[in-house]
Amino acid sequence: MAYPFQLGLQDATSPIMEELLHFHDHTLMIVFLISSLVLYIISLMLTTKLTHTSTMDAQEVETVWTILPAIILILIALPSLRILYMMDEINNPSLTVKTMGHQWYWSYEYTDYEDLNFDSYMIPTQELKPGELRLLEVDNRVVLPMEMTIRMLISSEDVLHSWAVPSLGLKTDAIPGRLNQTTLMATRPGLYYGQCSEICGSNHSFMPIVLEMVPLSYFETWSALMV
Amino acid sequence: MLSQIIGQTKEHPALIPFFLFIGAGGTGAAMYVLHLALFNPDISWDRKNNPEFWNKLGPNDQYKFYLVNVDYSKLKKGGPDF
């Protein structure tokens, strides 16, 4: 989950998110290098008495500042496309979970092995127990087995919503009349928080998502209890 | 237009890498669109002889442009045969 004064992305919980973190580091380093170079050159320009105001032709520097940005852009584009194709791979999920967005809560359906349906409402701030996170906790968490590929089918019963869990690198729009699919794979157990990411009305900020990743045996016990 | 490009590069040779990158990028974009038009299973060019190509997809064929981790020759068909 996010913490106060956080500057970067949340810790990765899925292989795709790890790739995205490394890509973000790589691209941000390029951005910092270019920005500091430009700032340095501006400071040099502003603090020199040597000026030449009638430059008409500068072939060498023009060649350099054409080739260098093109190379930098290619160095950013290739890893980006690689991650894009990696996100779209076939990976044989072992479980399918459906989630429907409503105004203003999420409902989850686990229908592979039994008929399990429940709604997930945010816990109001007045009813939080000590230690719980404001605007992030829900009454029924989405319990899922960890280290297994899970197919999430996402849609909406009324208006546009978006099912997002930043720690796993997931954000998929919930569109009424359309079924969107994403795959989820958590590498470690824990609680992972997300919030609805598409404006959907007055309580758009108050419909969070909490994934509880547990070992498979705990998941089986939980789903037997919940039915 | 090609004579314009050559004329301009003779006067300003710094334009050569610029035209090279723009040319390569435009060619790449056009070739990707051509690749999609010719090899994408959603598109049918010959409605008489090959009408519904999307019904004849196999589990071992590669339809995406670039593969990172998936080895298509090892996949098996999950659904029933028609």
Description:
The complex is a heterodimer of chains A (227) and B (82). Chain A has 227 residues and is an alpha+beta fold. Chain A has two domains: 15-88, Helix Hairpins (Orthogonal Bundle); 95-226, Immunoglobulin-like. Chain A has three helices and ten strands, in the order ααββββββββββα. Chain A has helices spanning 15-46, 59-87, 216-226, and strands at 95-102, 105-110, 116-120, 142-145, 150-156, 161-165, 170-174, 180-184, 190-195, 208-214. In chain A, strands 3-2-1-5-8 form a five-stranded mixed beta sheet, with no helix packed on it. In chain A, strands 4-10-9 form a three-stranded mixed beta sheet, with helices on one face. In chain A, α1 (15-46) runs antiparallel to α2. The mean pLDDT of chain A is 93. Chain B is mainly α. Chain B is 43% helix and 0% strand. Chain B has helices spanning 2-11, 15-39. Chain B is elongated. The A-B interface holds A 57-60, 62-63, 66-67, 70, 81-82, 85-86, 88-90 and B 12-18, 21, 64-70, 75.
List keywords for this structure.
heterodimer, A: 227 residues, alpha+beta, Helix Hairpins, Immunoglobulin-like, 2 domains, five-stranded mixed sheet, 3 helices, elongated, B: 82 residues, mainly alpha, 2 helices, 0% strand
Poorly predicted regions of chain A are: none
- Strand coverage percent of chain A: 25-35%
Name the average pLDDT of chain B: 78
Percent of residues in β-strands of chain B = under 5%
Can you list the strand order of the major beta sheet of chain A?
Answer: 3-2-1-5-8
Q: Please estimate the helix content of chain A.
A: 25-40%
Q: Helix content range of the residues of chain B, please?
A: 40-55%
- Alpha-beta classification of chain A: alpha+beta
Order of helices and strands of chain B, N to C?
HH
Unreliable runs of chain B: none
Q: What's the multimeric state?
A: heterodimer
User: Roughly what is the average pLDDT of chain A, rounded to an integer?
Assistant: 93
Main sheet attributes: strand count, strand direction, barrel closure of chain A:
5 strands, mixed
